[in-house]
Amino acid sequence: MEVRAIRQQEREECLQLWCTAFPHTSRSYFERYFYHDTEWQPEYTRVAVVQGRIVSCVQIIRRTAVCGEATLTMGGIANVSTLPQERGKGYNMACLLSALQVMEADAIDFSVLGTGIPEYYERIGFCNVAQARFTGTLPYEQDLATPLSLRPALPADAPHLHKLHRTFNARRPASLIRTASYWRGWMGVSSEAMPKGWYAACSGSGEPVGYVHMRYSEKAGKTSLTIDEAASCRIEEYPDVLLAALAEARQQGTGVVHLNIPLENALPQMKQKLGNLRKKNESGRMMRLLDRTSVLRGMLPELTERWHLAGRPQGSLAFQTPYGPVLLNAENKLKLEEAEQAALGQADFFQMLFHLPDTQQARRKPNALQKALMPVQTGFYYDQDEF
């Protein structure tokens, strides 16, 4: 077996492997990894080759994530696949380990993946992280008055969507920076095309002041709505954007609403307008550091500012990483030190860094120092950025 970067002429063979491994996913979905991702390079597709044939593959997706005033480089893991007849021989694990080495060498800060088999990835240092999601019912008698109107977004609205996302998520931890080429190539949103599901929330003048991405589904004769992204020009308008989406949903006969978005200042209105609103800290996404200290060193100015704003609480935090423990000490100043052992896990670190909900892997509730170092805004990774 040889594990290496894919060669340009092997992309068709790799596409066929993905289509074989994931028969219910369209070929066009996989083609974008090679032809519509501006960050792609052959080194980011790790293949296992046996007797001249690709039998397994792992894809690296390079992105830039926001974390307050700082940015971090993210390496997503996607299309983890092996030909059915070649499974159970260690080929895919070899590709994963090779991908980790590539990301380490590229100085990528952390890695992310989505999975239903977390135990497999825990073996190589990944930990579960959670994200809050909400579900409620939509009573027909509820008043959903809002000064905004909702309409399907048009290609001409693309620049507005770009700006609204950038403004609304300028400091939001774990959200991705979307360039115009990313919107166009990866998400299919441009001044020439607007995929189904995007809606513009407009003021009385007709100008978009917010947007939502939402989708309807039907099961056993009942219609449900999922909102998996929303934004507004001003945070004060965010509740009205969501109310406009709920009003549209009610016209479609929707009974159940899933909110896969940060609610923040819209939470009181959603509790009032939706019946039996329930919050679930959903896992299924995993993260892993790619160096013992690089993220903390790069984030130290940002963390120090948070610490000062919180009144400089004293103490220390020792986190376990795949490369050994790391200690963050808060006395006269915030600094990194050597640690022999750690009471906190990697999941606790990501919870603090991105202000994520608790997970079962978090070993204890955040103390005063951890809370001080958390960003004010809750972190969120939008479903539209999935890979």
Could you walk me through the main structural features you see in this protein, from its secondary elements to its overall organization?
- There is one protein chain.
- This protein is 28% helix and 31% strand.
- With 387 residues, the protein is α+β, with helices and mostly antiparallel strands.
- The relative contact order is 0.14.
- Helix 1 runs antiparallel to helix 2 (27-35).
- It has a twelve-stranded mixed sheet, with helices on both faces. Strands 13-14-15 form a three-stranded antiparallel sheet, covered by helices on one side.
First-last Cα distance: 27 Å
Q: How many runs of DSSP E, i.e. beta strands? A: 15
How much helical structure, as a percent, in the residues?
Answer: 25-40%
Kindly provide the radius of gyration, computed on alpha-carbon positions and rounded to a whole number of angstroms. 22 Å
Largest sheet, described in full? 12 strands, mixed
What is the CATH superfamily label of the largest domain? Gcn5-related N-acetyltransferase (GNAT)
CATH class identity of the largest domain: Alpha Beta
Are there runs of 5+ residues with pLDDT below 50, and where?
none
Q: What spatial form do the alpha-carbon principal axes imply?
A: globular
Instruction: Please state the second-level CATH architecture of the largest domain.
Output: 3-Layer(aba) Sandwich
**Strand and helix order:** EHHEEEHEHEEHHEEEHEHEHEEEHH
**Order of strands in the sheet with the most strands?**
1-2-3-4-5-12-6-11-10-9-8-7
Report the portion of residues in β strands: 25-35%
Q: How many discrete structural domains?
A: 3
Tally of separate helices: 11
Q: Given the helix and strand composition, which structural class is it?
A: alpha+beta
Mean pLDDT: 94
